[in-house]
């Protein structure tokens, strides 16, 4: 019993990665096409699994988050239209990198951003299987968030307290998890190493 979330980012942000998330975990991801349109499908209807957060990530712009988007069976919930797309401001990008050892951990490193006590995954990277190295490219600017409403456009406002503040979480193949705070608001290179 599934439905769809769809919408538009500004054409300049074509190629943006768009996630449907629940509790900071990506359920479905897609890429905005050359017109800025994105479609996330299939998604379980909200009465079964709860609403979704739509997280928009693109190089050189701030992250956009539309919270609490409902999904209805055989219906598309629209979060933005082509005439009123989601427009995100420019952002400097900084890199958080390091190593996850031993390499046998085969870790995935996720960058999470906490806003009002809720986590959102912004990006992730696999640690290199030979070296354990990973790198995450993250916006330094404040993320823009808003709560879904059927009367569009959804108003998005920057959350200044979250600017450049992330948690790097390493998830090993064994199921073990480690995390560490990362601040990329000022520095171009935040270094975080993990050891399992």
Describe this structure in words.
There is one protein chain. The chain has 196 residues and is an all-beta fold. It has a domain at 93-140 and 161-195: Immunoglobulin-like. It has one helix and 17 strands. The strands form four sheets. It has a six-stranded mixed sheet, with no helix packed on it. Strands 8, 11, 16 and 17 form a four-stranded mixed sheet that branches. Strands 10-9-14-15 form a four-stranded antiparallel sheet, with no helix packed on it. Strand 9 and strand 10 (118-126) form a beta hairpin. The protein is globular and about 50 Å long.
- Total strand segments: 17
Poorly predicted spans: none
Q: For the terminal residues, how far apart are their CA atoms? A: 40 Å
- If you compute it from the alpha carbons, what radius of gyration comes out, rounded to the nearest whole angstrom? 17 Å
CATH class designation of the domain at 93-140 and 161-195: Mainly Beta
Quaternary structure annotation: single chain
Largest sheet: 6 strands, mixed
Based on secondary structure, the structural category is mainly beta
| β-strand amount | over 45%
Helix content estimate: under 10%
Strand order of the largest sheet: 3-2-5-6-12-13
Rough outline: globular
Superfamily (CATH H level) name of the domain at 93-140 and 161-195:
Carboxypeptidase-like, regulatory domain
SSE series: EEEEHEEEEEEEEEEEEE
Task: Compute the number of helices.
Answer: 1
